[in-house]
Specification:
1222 residues, mainly alpha, TRPM, calcium-activated cation channel activity
Length: 1222
Amino acid sequence: MCFQSWIPKIIKKRVCTTFVENASSNGALCQCGGSRDAHGSVALGDYFGTAIVNRWDSAQHSSEYPTDAFGEIQFAGASKRHSYFLRLSWDTPPSMVYTLMTAHWGLPSPNLVVSVVGGEGKTKVKTWVREVIRQGLVKASQSTGAWILTAGLREGVGRCVGEAVRDHATAASSVSLNKVVALGIASWGLVHNREQLVNPQGSFPAKYYISNAAGDSCCLDNNYQAFLLVDDGSVVNKGGETGFRAKLEDYISHQRTGIWGSGSIDIPVLCMLVSGDASMLERVDLSLKNSMPWLVLAGSGGMADFLSDVLENLSSVPVVQSSSEVDGEVAPSVDLKDRMAERVKKYFPLETETDKLVERALSIYQNKDFITIYHGEQEGPNDFDTVLLKALVRASKQRASVDASPYNEELNLAVTWNRVDIAKSELFNGDILWRYRDLEDSMTDALVNDKPQFVRLFTENGLNILDYLTYGRLESLYRSVADGTLLYQLLQRRLVERLGTAGPTYSPSSVQESPSKVAADGMQNGPATDISLFEVSGVLELLLGDVCQPFYFDALDLHMITSKRRALRRVSKLLRGDCFYRDRRCLYPWASLFIWAVLQNRSEMATLFWEMAGESVLSALSGCKILRELSKLEVETETKLSMKELAQRFENLAHDVFGSCYRSNESRSFTLLIRKSPVWGGTTCLQMGMGADARLFFSHDGVQSLLSQIWWGDMKRNTEKRIQEQQQEQEGKPSEDGPGRDSDSLYGTTVFSFSDIKHIEADAQMPTTPRTATIRGVPQPRRPPKRPFIVSRWRQFWFAPVTSFLGNVLMYFLFLLLFAYVLLVDFKPPPPSGPAVTEYVLYFWVFTIVCEEIRETFFVGTKTLRQRFRVYIQDVWNKCDLTAITLFIIGLICRMFEWSYGFGRDVLCVDYMVFTLRLIHIFAIHKQLGPKIIIVGKMMKDVFFFLFFLVIWLMAYGVANQALIYAYDPHLDRIFRRVFYRPYLHIFGQIPVEEMDVGKDWDMPCTDNVTLINDGAEPCRTLYSNWLVVILLVIYLLVTNILLINLLIAMFSSTFSEVQAHSDVYWKFQRYNLIVQYHSRPSLAPPFIILSHINLFIKRVIRKVPSVKIHHFVLQLRGKAANRLTTWETIQKEDFLTAQSKIQKSSDSERLKRMSAKVDGVLKHLSESRDFDHRLRALESEMEYCSSALSWIVDTLAQSSTFKPPRAPPTLRDSFPSSSST
């Protein structure tokens, strides 16, 4: 722990340096408690000082020295957990100590500080006070994430707090976010066995033995997390820590809550008084003057009972304005002073300085609004957190400004403690009309500190997210990201790229201040060196760039810029200016917040924003995509697993919501899959699902139905449509495609046609091309004339993707036959003798294949060139195509020259294998072969693991076998064959027994002559070690043929059983790629595809005819059609969430929760009924007293001779006659 060696340099201790004689000790002891021998010579020599000084003072008579007690403390025999401790002077700055505790000791910043005052010493704590501390204080502190400050000693209330913290920590979950921190602040001189803590170099840890201390000292409690041992130079004087404790409480009360102080309020500090003696009056008075709230436990004894009596029974006494004012304060009346003096004498009869106590009590009475009386014996420990909240709110209302809402402080406290139940019952019950400005800061606090329940509550009660989320506030949210997280690192990397390599570097310590400033300042414009939307866009491009257009480029006015360098210059210039874009509203607020939450892996927050955002299916798939990409970059295993779990959750949501949509309306659900989203960078559900590797989503029947209909094209649809028309003609009904068709049914009631996409998109964009027809059947001015039936059916057949697939399969088989014929029969020598005509045909064929690959890579789709190439290169089969084409070009070049002719032919032979393996991908469309191909691909990974073990064992055996059989053989070719190749053949039973067993005759001529062996002769076998060769052969065959081969079989079986259950899901997922590929391909297959390429070149380049297939699987909806589809999807999502909520409510866990809540309510009513019973008994006793008093008055008046009543006194009549009288 050398990093804490700086502590003695800044933290000091106190040592008494002036001997002030204690009169009661006959000059043997100083008033500090130390003996005369314990003081230095300088102090002893100061006889003049000791003569005139009769009262010891720490500031005057002690000096500071570097502290010699700090580090960690281990309680022997009590606990394995270490606590922190520090010996410090009473005048140490509290800011330094607070930074030490939070930054270096790692204590979590508090959301509440409860300072328990009083209850010290050997007096026994009352039972109900123990219950209030255990069931009330510690439980409430655990739910709010609080610090509890006591003396930290094993006596009185401090011991009760320690035991309660221990019990709650044991019962609470280990992953609880709000843990109670028990902090002990005691006087150094009163700590028993304090010499065990002394070590000038620091103790890590210090062994501390707990014993039953006697006298005025007491041991430290092992249930506390940290101890601050305040040193005033004395060893017996009590109260030396009081001043430092008050200063620390005041300092903490001015710090902000939340992550790095990003909360909306200062840390609330509450002092709780339990019993106490008369000296506590001064402490209470001083803290009340600093507006510190107090909670007094009435009935706990001592000072607590005195204050509760004064504040409750003297509250009706008026405080009049006196003619003389002291320090601007109101002077109390004489009657109030007298009554206060009576109570001081009543509660503190042994105190002599009653006048000072009365003045202190009157000062406290004037600040009574900061004091809350709690009758714990009557009210019980339940809902103690509400008591704390009301005590703090009551005090804060005294400090609040006139313009502020009276409920703001209560709301801020509820948000800080994350107590949404209190907010719902007390603040959002319909009685308060909340304004937007009242919720704005609390909303920021809830977002930054991950409190999704409050975000939902605010949005349901008046906060308009459109007004709240501007681009500037969105940037501030990204600046509040915790350092050390993956998102922070990615944002900083993009920031360094923008600032350039010569820009400033950012250390974690310098960045920690940013979130607090940003959250506090809100909408203030940051400098150009802060994180902006450009860095956020760069991170999203890294994660979603293969399927989406850049985000937030419209806000930064970069949508027309394609060059990254120009964009950097433009953004740098923009951020150095006024940055007016930060005041604009965010275009899609819920989606932006959803992205922000997903990037930070906040599960509940992301789910909430997903529920609020539109385009639920696409949003869920986008969240899945982002999380899976982040999990690939994440290093920590636990975080990576949580990202994968959340990604799977979003994929399940997308699958379930789309299932609800598909059951509601089939045609609209198809539109949902191919609708181009302006929110998510112009992508579609199918494209995002493919990028997110969402296999479960693609396995849905609705997605597969769309893919099947696209695969068969218009052939199947028109056949069914023709049957429907014939039925309608027979029944005399109009066609659904007529002008009167409902606009909701865009794609027919049952069957979806991809050709309709062209008409809808053309109608939406209103081009001047001949293809301007909508699906509604309304004739357009330039629509082409109707073709004959045979021609239209031929076009439907010819342009269907299945036709293109069958043609490509047939021609690919012919290509492989031609390739094999050239290699086996017609492979001529280099020029001028060759190549043959068939080989030239093969070259041309491969050239057309290359042209098609170039077209697919660079001329299909609407993405940028970089995005297209990235998507192309990610596919395994595209890599196979590149390998095959590269090998073919190498073989072609090499075979043209005499010196490399043989090598070129070998390369072409290997290339033929690669082209043949390409058939596997072609047959992936087959329903039976597709899943088996996936299983084979999975098993290939098992083969590689098997080969790893096999190579190790094979090399070990091969080297040993070769060295044992042949003593000397320098030829590398023979060594390689006998070390690797021959042991490999042993696995399949090819064992040369004659060569390996000397007992067998071997007809191979051999020699032992080294010269001949070096010239290439066969060496003879070694005879004396042949027995070991046989043993090794047996062991090798046993391990390989039985162990490793069976291991491989077991791995294959495991993989097969694992994949077989999901093979259909994998196959349906990969089927999408094949359908997209052949849908975009021309109908002609290589080599005739060159005609289609020429036709496309004429259309696109010369005639400038726009492509329709370039937008494959993409539909652009605008206006009412887009709004109608979005509304319908939102309704389906809400129905799905409602159904899920019903299922959750009917679960056993929810039933138990409701039952528990009802039982708690019943217990609460019972406690209230007991309270009513107590009140009724008190009322009965008072009535009995009044009745006896009245009877006494009546008797007195009756016996009096001065007063003659006109009639006799009334007699008491029974309201309920007894049964005996009847």
